[in-house]
Write a structure and sequence with these properties.
single chain, alpha+beta, eight-stranded mixed β-sheet, 29% strand
């Protein structure tokens, strides 16, 4: 049975850090120290969870509760467990929690891997925005990246633009629009 749990042990923390660094290119993630600092701030809506199958850690997910939606920042499963439905069950676990709506960023579907990723999210109830979107750089040493927003739940176009502004402000610390 798949469930989300707090990262409670040093071994889980190390596993999450290794998976995080391997699964996401440097420009698509903040430094791990920033992740743990965000988690320590109890009032910002940030969570990072271990994805567990019985007693085995099989992945990690980080997300933000931002006003009236979740922003899934990172979702990764162990390489040997990919394609087993774990990611879909993580999405369902988050989507079954109020406020029930989710936004995330994906690379534009321009190659086989990025198309596969977009199709995974589509199979799990997400829609792909056609609006150009730049993921802000996580730091001065990182680059901004062209991305697309995907959403699950009821968003009208103006709400999706508001969600993008909220993500820029709360996740990336960019105050100007």
């Amino acid at each position: 049975m798949i469930f989300l749990c707090d990262i409670a042990s040093e071994s889980q923390r190390c596993h999450a850090e290794q998976l995080y660094r391997r699964a996401f290119p440097k420009d698509e993630r903040p430094d791990i120290e920033v992740v743990w600092k965000n988690l320590a701030q109890s009032d910002n809506g940030f969570e990072i969870k271990a994805v567990c199958d019985n007693n085995e850690m099989v992945g990690m997910v980080s997300y933000w509760l931002l006003c009236d939606f979740f922003f899934i920042e990172h979702l990764a499963t162990n390489v040997e467990r990919r394609g087993c439905g774990i990611g879909a069950r993580v999405i369902e676990a988050i989507a079954s929690t109020p406020p029930y709506r989710i936004v995330l960023e994906v690379e534009p579907p321009v190659d086989a891997l990025s198309r596969r990723r977009v199709e995974f999210y589509r199979r799990n109830g997400f829609e792909l925005s056609t609006i150009d979107y730049m993921q802000p750089a996580y730091s001065a040493e990182r680059k901004s990246l062209p991305m697309r927003l995907m959403w699950r739940g009821n968003f009208d176009p103006e709400e999706l633009l508001d969600a993008a502004r909220t993500i820029r402000r709360r996740v990336y610390g960019i105050c100007q629009q």
